[in-house]
Design a protein that fits this description.
elongated; Deoxyribonuclease I, Chain A; six-stranded mixed β-sheet; single chain; nuclease; about 300 residues; alpha+beta; 12 strands; Endonuclease/exonuclease/phosphatase family protein
């Protein structure tokens, strides 16, 4: 009986470790979902290895435990590679950004979301899958008179960017080959400091290779926008995914020390961050926090404060 239990633990642990280790050989899109959960899966494999060792003292359990620990440690290292140094608390906030995928069939909560947005104090608001807010747009425009999306720059209401300040040359373009109008580009002047804003909504990473093509589009676009830059939205994957690592590293993007988990809702703080807010120097993230209420969405929203690095 012990041999059977040990064998089950060992086989399952080996399969999990093999799946998340394939990233070091080839970035295979069908496994991207598992790459995002590398830290979670490695910890689970470590626990399973300990359980197997308690059932039967065997060298293989020690081996899988060692591999699990190495993969978990490397997951932490990868997540922290792009963390920006803490900025002086006394440095004033230049602006506040909200980014939230509210889910396109979430009409029952449209009014509550609009009220939350108005009361948030955010200077700029990125709303993805924004159709539930279409009926609330006249009320939102009283606080945010400048916007793009939902009839401005696009017929459908998928992406909506609201601002208290004028949007300079806002436009919407496609990302990759699968979906249309999922990248909004605009510039906002904050008392003489112009900041570029990119609001992006990427495909799920296991939809063939479309996610990688969308990353390539971002890598091509970002260098054409000099100066401070914000990239925010729903990326449908964590920064542990290989293509996200490539985006962050090649474009010099930064994030906070611990990105808030935004999905799945049921996991709360133990989920993963698939919604992100990134900055590019001289712009720096001062803080990023999760909006406590998901308002019926399958994502949590994010609120971020930015400052300029002297």
């Amino acid at each position: 009986m012990r041999d059977t239990i040990f064998c089950v633990f060992s086989v399952l642990t080996t399969l999990v470790l093999a799946i998340i280790s394939l990233r070091y050989v080839k970035d295979f899109y069908l496994l991207s979902f598992f790459y995002s959960f590398q830290l979670h899966l490695a910890v689970a494999a470590a626990v399973a290895s300990v359980a197997a060792f308690l059932v039967k003292r065997h060298w293989y359990a020690v081996l899988t435990l060692g591999v699990s620990v190495m993969l978990a440690v490397h997951g932490v290292v990868m997540a922290r590679e792009f963390v920006e140094p803490a900025i002086n608390e006394g440095r004033p906030v230049l602006f506040r950004l909200m980014s939230f995928n509210i889910e396109n069939d979430n009409f029952a909560n449209g009014r509550d979301i609009a009220e939350m947005v108005i009361a948030s104090g955010a200077d700029v608001v990125n709303i993805l899958e924004a159709e539930p807010l279409l009926s609330e747009l006249p009320r939102l425009l009283q606080t945010y008179p400048y916007y793009v999306g939902c009839g401005i720059g696009m017929e459908q209401c998928d992406t909506l960017v609201l601002s208290k300040r004028p949007l300079i040359e806002p436009h919407i373009r496609n990302l990759g080959l699968l979906w249309r109008n999922r990248l909004t580009i605009s510039t906002i002047d904050f008392d003489g400091r112009k900041v570029n804003f990119l609001a992006a909504h990427l495909t799920k990473p296991y939809y063939d290779e479309f996610h990688g093509l969308e990353i390539e589009d971002l890598v091509e676009l970002i260098p054409s926008l000099p100066g401070p830059l914000v990239l925010a939205g729903d990326f449908n994957t964590s920064i542990l995914a290989p293509d996200m690592q490539y985006l962050m590293r090649s474009q010099g993007l930064g994030t906070v020390s611990l990105e808030p988990a935004t999905w799945p809702i049921i996991a709360g703080p133990f989920g993963i961050a698939i919604d992100h807010v990134f900055s590019k120097a001289p712009l720096r993230l001062k803080s990023v926090r999760r909006i406590a209420n998901s308002f019926g969405s399958n994502h949590f929203g994010l609120m971020a404060d930015f400052a300029i690095d002297p």
